From TrEMBL:
PANTHER family: LD05707P, PYRAZINAMIDASE/NICOTINAMIDASE. Transmembrane segments: none annotated. Pathway: Cofactor biosynthesis; nicotinate biosynthesis; nicotinate from nicotinamide: step 1/1. GO terms for molecular function: metal ion binding; nicotinamidase activity. It holds the Pfam family Isochorismatase. One of its GO terms (biological process) is pyridine nucleotide biosynthetic process. Residues 7-196 form the Isochorismatase-like domain. Keywords: Hydrolase, Metal-binding, Pyridine nucleotide biosynthesis. It is an enzyme of class 3 (hydrolase). Belongs to the isochorismatase family. Its EC number is 3.5.1.19. This is Nicotinamidase.
Length: 207
């Protein structure tokens, strides 16, 4: 690792994605301990936070008659509909209480535009609206981004794929992630990441 040019990006380790949360990822709380260990190995750490307004367009409750985990067409294409989750300022939007935020130098909030969901740490789901993270990493001179968090097959994968597309060397620590695996989404995400050269580390460390 190069402390000057490596950054660790912690994706959406929030109450609503952990056990008993509104959109709980199976075993989601298990990512906290390895992420805390990893963060202490990096000189630079960024965290992302899903931050939706009430009635967000990605919520099934915003589409009468629609069921959670079904799909609709929005202005930017197909969108999976989710249970209401990570509503800005709510307890469920908070970081997991066990997550060590002391090493975190930047928190990027995403998904706050009413009509656009945002999986990636770099772009919203219209694939054109940037979060600003890419510019931040470039201005600070980072070259390699290492990702962990929730969920492997959505926000982690989208972030790693975008990092690679933007020219960063991207890695995912799979043992410090957990997946939703909706309709084969995990296998698809892993294949996509492998295809573009994202480094996949199967334990909970970089070894």
């Amino acid at each position: 690792m190069d402390p000057a040019t490596d950054v660790f990006v912690v994706i959406d380790v929030q109450v609503d994605f952990c056990p008993d949360g509104a959109l709980a990822v199976a075993d989601g709380g298990a990512v906290v301990a390895p992420i805390n260990r990893l963060a202490r190995r990096f000189a630079h750490v960024v965290a992302t936070q899903d931050w939706h307004p009430a009635g967000h367009g990605s919520f099934a409750s915003s589409h009468p008659g629609a069921a959670p985990f079904s799909s609709v067409e929005l202005s930017y294409g197909a969108q999976t509909l989710w249970p209401d989750h990570c509503v800005a300022g709510s307890p469920g939007a908070a970081f997991h209480p066990g997550l060590d935020l002391e090493p975190v130098q930047l928190i990027v909030r995403k998904g706050f535009r009413q009509a656009i969901d945002s999986y990636s740490a770099f772009f919203e789901n219209d694939r054109t609206t940037p979060t600003g993270l890419g510019g931040y990493l470039r201005e600070r001179g980072f070259r390699r981004a290492v990702f962990a968090g929730l969920a492997t097959d959505y926000c982690v994968a989208y972030s790693a794929l975008d990092a690679a597309a933007l020219g960063f060397e991207a890695h995912v620590v799979l043992g410090a992630c957990r997946a939703i695996d909706l309709g084969g989404s995990l296998a698809s995400a892993l294949a996509q990441m492998q295809a573009v050269g994202v480094g996949l580390h199967h334990g909970d460390d970089l070894a």
